[in-house]
């Protein structure tokens, strides 16, 4: 589904990604772990098309197409979703209105019929039930005045409504207490399916206790320096990122790809 | 000052016959104001209050005074129908009262509502004070008075509205000013006198529309006096044709514990100028103003807000948004004065603006003068573009760039309508805002 090869990217002239390669297949859950400044969030932003990230080398192929050539809204319509580390508050834009506009814009691009407000409301009610979110959130402006946990749950709720093929979760666990973390994890687990892949970017191992990944990758200094199964996360927990980095000095290791 | 009589605009306005009332003091006042206008002419850019609104272009134009056919011009009532606004209504076409379009027969107890022309035919004495002075509010800068003077000289009609003490008028009163295309480009004028008695309350909708696209010049001067504890919800919808030049002056005076909540939407017009001058003269008076101006094309919209706190523990909040597109220009001046002795005043003023095109311009100027103690005051003004993070967030969910821009711009403006109590009207106005945005 997603094939990243030798990706190099710069932010404000500084090289952050330095030859990252990764392959993600449908149905898989990949965790990207790494210390602060390793390039984790940059990867999420480059994949979703945020301005200010300059790709200087490498390719990203998504379902056979060049993902980097698409505008952010086109990427969304082809099924790429980014759950933000810091969801943006948008005063004056109603959450429901926003989500319907988003879903219908995507459906239009895909040549599907747009949902009217009744059909949309029905869909939303189903998803709310699954996500255990109160419908009060729907009537508020997008993320405005939401607590940290509400913002993250709203991201997962949006994901449930938009039903992407590739979901990138950028530190969705950060800033959450254990109850909120469990709720978010449960939402993600509900959405796991053979057609859908997840890329979970996280600093801590604890999210992986609740959303068990198929693959764990360690991102350090702009490259994936080690890949493994979920036991790698436990090893990290034990030895820290410093321990991993010590066994992979910069430049000595060809970025690992997991098929 | 320009050489007054040589300007075509001044000459054409002086050319129009004065309305004859047969009331000695009124006719004398009109002659005096006309003479003062003739002597003073139009303010030019050296006058601070008109620095950002040049009258050079307008000064070169001529407008015929008065519309002999105003009483019979066909105006579609659909042009001024508003959801949530179904109370008494007065309609003026080219400055002339139209009973056939109005609805003021069965007024609720405590509400007196009639056109000025009619009020003057009855007992004119109660209007003497208001009509003998150029404007209600006392701190008017002399040089800005040209249009007030020509209005005082030429306005033969307008609204006279009084709410009796303690009367609670629930149905909103709708005041409609229609500019209708005529045989020649017209100038017309209206003078409104509004007073709420002690403890009275009223919702008022002041509405400007056009019938046809012809260029016009209109001046409107309103006095609004709120006695002790009176409460006013006042909504202004200015949706005139793009050829309309509208010069409005509202003087608002709040006595003790009076409260006014004002929402202004400036959508139409060619050259639009609104001076809103408010005085909080009684303790604990409260004024809350919100407004949005959204010029596009070559529109020029200038709002001059001046609020003066003159009593103890008075409050004012002002939240205004501007969005300019194409080659349009917006001007906003928000001046707050806390007078000596007005201790405990709380004043905040905020004006945020968006430029949607590199050739659009908005000049904003907050001013704060404080001469009292224990005052809370805050003001801020910004001019900028849409927030890139918000745009990306919307796009990342699949909303195309142009739609995302429109959504954010609409939200930016709509914020000023949040506390408009009339839900049906609020939603309608919100729709008008969105319709005004570039597709």
Give the gist of this structure.
Chain A is built from nine helices and twelve strands. With 259 residues, chain A is of the alpha/beta class. In chain A, the strands form three sheets. In chain A, strands 6-9-10-3-11-12 form a six-stranded mixed beta sheet, with helices on both faces. A four-stranded antiparallel beta sheet of chain A has the order 2-1-4-5. In chain A, strands 7-8 form a two-stranded antiparallel ribbon.
Written description of the protein model:
The complex is a heterodimer of chains A (259) and B (439). Chain A is α/β, with parallel strands linked by helices and 259 residues long. Chain A has nine helices and twelve strands. In chain A, helix 7 links the parallel strand 9 and strand 10 (197-202). Chain A starts with a strand and ends in a 12-residue tail after the last helix. In chain B, helix 2 (24-40) packs antiparallel against helix 6 and helix 7 (388-396) crosses helix 8. The longest helix of chain B is centred in the first third of the chain and has 17 residues, at 24-40. At the A-B interface, helix 2, strand 7, helix 3 and strand 8 of A face helix 7 and helix 8 of B.
Primary descriptors:
heterodimer, A: 259 residues, alpha/beta, six-stranded mixed beta sheet, four-stranded antiparallel beta sheet, 9 helices, 39% helix, globular, disordered C terminus, B: 439 residues, ten-stranded mixed beta sheet, 20 strands, 20% helix
Query: Uncertain regions of chain B: pLDDT < 50 for 5+ in a row?
Result: 139-144
Mean pLDDT of chain B: 93
Biggest interface, which chains?
A-B, 31 and 23 residues
The largest sheet of chain A is: 6 strands, mixed
Approximately how much beta-strand content do the residues of chain B carry?
35-45%
Q: Strands of the largest sheet of chain A, in order across it?
A: 6-9-10-3-11-12
The secondary-structure class of chain B comes to alpha/beta
- Characterize the biggest β-sheet of chain B: 10 strands, mixed
DSSP summary, beta strand count of chain B: 20
Q: Which shape of chain B, going by the Cα principal axes?
A: globular
| Overall helicity of chain B | 10-25%
Number of helices of chain B: 9
Rg of chain A, nearest Å: 18 Å
Q: What sequence of helices (H) and strands (E) makes up the elements of chain B?
A: HHHEEEEHHHEEEEEEEEEEEEEEEEHHH
